[in-house]
Amino acid sequence: MNRVLTRIIVCILIAIILLPLSERGYAHGNSHMLIHKPKSSDQSPNISSIIMTVGSSRQAAFVSELRIERSELDQTIRKAKQKQAEQADIYPDIYITHLTAERDEYRLERSGQLWNESQSVRLELSARLAKQLTELADGLRKQHYGKLLTWQQATGLMPNKSIFSVTELQSGLTFRVQRRAGSDHADVQPLTKDDSRIMKHIYNGRWSWKRKAVLVRTDGEWVAASMNGMPHGGDGIPENGFSGHFCIHFLGSSTHKSEYPDPAHQMMVHKAAGQLEPYFDAAEPLVLAKSFIEAMYHQDEEIIRLLTEKLPKEQQSAFIQGMYELVSIREQLPAKGKAEPAPNRGSLGDALLTELHVPITIHPINGQRRNSSYTFRFNRASVQSPWRIHHIE
User: Fold this and answer.
1) What is the C-alpha to C-alpha distance for residues 67 and 7, in angstroms, rounded to an integer?
2) What is the DSSP letter of 323?
3) Which of 186, 188, 237, 269 is most solvent-facing, going by the fewest CB within 10 Å?
4) Are 286 and 240 contacting, i.e. CB atoms less than 8 angstroms apart?
5) Quick one: 121 exposed, middle or buried, by C-beta within 10 A (0-12, 13-18, 19+)?
């Protein structure tokens, strides 16, 4: 199957949440096949199931699921005290479904509480159950995403002429490639016409330079990576329906034209590793601004939500709606020899406030290509705190 929805890539897990994780047989690394059946004394036709799902977006076809069949958790959710909560600090990629007659949907808070997003209601669980849910979520996320390996580490796993598989994180579609060259990233080609067809389907039938978060499967490892979808350069596999090669990037790898890592590729590599939040937490304002523009260009709702979490909901929604009305939006890069735009520090003079003016070229679907700009304002609580976008103009 090319749509890898039964794992190896997608796992249906049955867990006993009262046992420590080490006793449930969680495998190390990315084996992607974890099964543990509940004790026979726990089985009952009246027990409802709780399904924990991890996926890189709300629309992702590529997901991993954990089925929890435990009467205690079921009864706790049914009887839990409800508290009004307009906002919650949630895992951005974890979804909880309580399979009752009504099929209740929740998001998992980092504290382990359950939040009903549509009703703005929090279910208050005991500290013990909340801790166990976060442990299960962390284990499931580790299974779902790829390892974050540097280019130097990754290149040793895939020498020239080696064959490996590529799975796109959103669709779950998988195809095979062969590495042909590349010193700063992997230059690869689809192995057959069928592999080229699957790759083109990932790009909606049109080759594109846009980056996609992918998992590379090689030598027993699932590695986080990013690919583009445009045939270019030399061709080494005849009759594979792909004229040229395309590029796969890893942590810290660079493009043909630059000695520096490509911001869009690095963003997608971290997405494939499930590490977008720590990546943005450690990023300087310029990287956040570039990432916002790239997320608009790549029409990635989840990244936009993550980068604009401090903006008013109406403005956040306007950006998400607006990105689907664009043919393209690109940063205007400075001429050779000129520096990147420098941040303007706030009047406090203490590096807690920063402003960036970034020129862009924007092409609306129903309009002409034109030059414009974004002004980003950032703040942070202390010099040790991460930068956050708090205004875009």
Assistant:
1) 14
2) H
3) 237
4) no
5) middle
pLDDT per position as a tens digit, 119-166:
999 999 999 999 999 999 999 999 999 999 999 999 999 999 999 999
Strands (E), the chain: 12-15, 49-55, 63-68, 81-84, 90-99, 104-109, 114-116, 121-124, 163-168, 174-181, 186-190, 208-218, 221-229, 246-249, 326-331, 344-345, 353-364, 370-379, 388-392
Number of Cα atoms under 13 Å in the Cβ half of residue 347: 0
Nearest of 246, 334, 252, 248 to residue 290 by alpha carbon = 334
Question: What's the CA gap between 70 and 219, in Å, rounded?
Answer: 37
Tens of pLDDT, residues 90-120? 999 999 999 877 789 999 999 999 999 999 9
Domains of the chain: 12-144 (no CATH), 151-270 (2.30.110), 298-392 (3.10.450)
3-state secondary structure of 130: helix
In the block, tokens 């129903």 appear at 366
Which of 74, 75, 81 has the alpha carbon at shortest distance from 96?
74
Tokens of 121: 């209601």
Q: Would you mind telling me the total number of residues written for the chain in this entry?
A: 393
Q: Rounded to an integer, what distance in angstroms lies between the CA atom of residue 213 and that of residue 236? A: 25
- How far apart CA 336 and CA 323 sit, in angstroms, is 29
Give 76's strand partners.
none
